[in-house]
Automatic annotation (TrEMBL):
This is Chitin-binding type-2 domain-containing protein. Residues 192-250, 260-320 form the Chitin-binding type-2 domain. It comes from the Eukaryota. One of its GO terms (molecular function) is chitin binding. The keyword Disulfide bond applies. Keywords: Chitin-binding, Disulfide bond, Glycoprotein, Membrane, Repeat, Signal, Transmembrane, Transmembrane helix. The chain crosses the membrane at residues 326-347. Residues 21-73, 152-177 are annotated as: Disordered. It comes from Nesidiocoris tenuis.
Length: 348
């Protein structure tokens, strides 16, 4: 940018010098022309005039053209800028010189702040705060000015709960783990649930069949029917579904089962109580068992809730019941009869 400025300055100076030289040359030519006119207008044969008028020369005529404005020499620019030459005005070429631009200075630093270190903790005494640095600052600075009850409440805060259900859940987990090494944050996580900004149903972080119904920021704890689990990705109003349709992830806890002799839980698809019977299962609805028999050659798969091929089910100790053997025999017999009739029709 500096080289461009010097280049345009040099051009402006050359233009100004050229204009001055042209004006001086024009002035010199004009003077020579006037001398020639004066010499040609001298009266060689004057008339009879008085003695004072005899041989008088005519005065030179004034210039018919006004000299115009004085030559303008452009100044040096005060800031880097491009000089733009405009059209001549009264015989003078003007050059635009931009005004200087005031540089903005950064605001002065009024105050600076450095993050406190471990040794910059103020010492509090009954007489008032002190700004002197202690020799060794520890977290026990509040000892000596608080009572034992206040000190215990500060070091071991109790979680704030809203109802007895949260308290019971926290107490169950507290007694379940004999070590008791859980901190306050985990108790608060188990004790209360904070609703997001929007209303809706949200899963519990640890129990797969528990969810919270949030309305205007107030959470209501709810449970799916026994045997079903909560699916947060389900767009239906009832988000409780079969376990083989939901990915619980880390939510491995479930409510206590309500079982009977055929249904381990009140809802769901369950295998036959006899492990050797692999082709029969039960569909339990609110504790009522409905027996379902798989098609011949298929076994019930507990992980998918459907009848699949034995290799996919992966069940062991499966025996073929008498009903299945009889049904398979009848199917084979029907196939043989059908093939025999087809062959006889072709031969005819």
């Amino acid at each position: 940018m500096g080289m461009d400025t010097k280049y345009y300055e040099r051009i402006a100076e050359e233009v100004a010098e050229k204009e001055i030289a042209e004006e001086e040359e024009a002035k010199r030519r004009e003077e020579e022309k006037q001398r020639e006119l004066i010499a040609n207008r001298t009266m060689k044969s004057p008339k009879k005039l008085s003695g004072t008028q005899a041989g008088q020369r005519i005065k030179p005529a004034t210039k018919s053209r006004s000299p115009g404005l004085a030559a303008y020499r452009p100044l040096k620019p005060t800031s880097p800028a491009v000089l733009t030459l405009k059209r001549p005005l009264n015989g003078v070429k003007w050059a635009y010189i931009p005004k200087p631009v005031r540089e903005l200075q950064p605001p002065p630093v009024i105050a600076s702040w450095d993050p406190p270190s471990a040794n910059d903790v103020a010492v509090f005494r009954p007489g008032g705060p002190s700004t002197s640095k202690p020799q060794s600052a520890t977290k026990d600075w509040y000892k000596g000015i608080l009572t034992d009850e206040e000190l215990d409440a500060l070091e071991h805060p109790k979680p704030k709960v809203r109802n007895s259900n949260y308290t019971n859940a926290a107490n169950k987990r507290k007694h379940h783990h004999a070590s008791g090494d859980y901190n306050t944050s985990i108790y608060l996580l188990y004790a209360q649930f904070r609703c997001p900004s929007k209303n809706g149903q949200f899963e519990d972080p640890s129990q797969c069949d528990k969810f919270y119904d949030c309305v205007d920021g107030v959470a209501t704890e709810k449970l799916c029917p026994d045997g079903l689990v909560f699916d947060p990705l389900n767009r239906k109003t009832n988000k409780c579904d079969q376990p083989f349709n939901v990915d619980c992830g880390d939510r491995i806890e479930l409510q206590p089962p309500k079982s009977n002799h055929l249904c381990p839980r009140r809802n769901g698809y369950f295998a036959h109580q006899d492990e050797s019977v692999c082709n029969i299962f039960y569909n339990c609805i609110e504790g009522e068992a409905n027996q379902i028999v798989c098609p011949p050659g298929l076994h019930f798969d507990e992980y998918s809730g459907t009848c699949v091929w034995p290799d996919s089910a992966g069940r062991t100790n499966c025996g073929e019941p008498e009903d299945s053997k009889l049904m398979l025999f009848m199917v084979m017999l029907i196939l043989c009869i059908f093939q025999t009739m087809t062959i006889s029709l072709i031969l005819q």
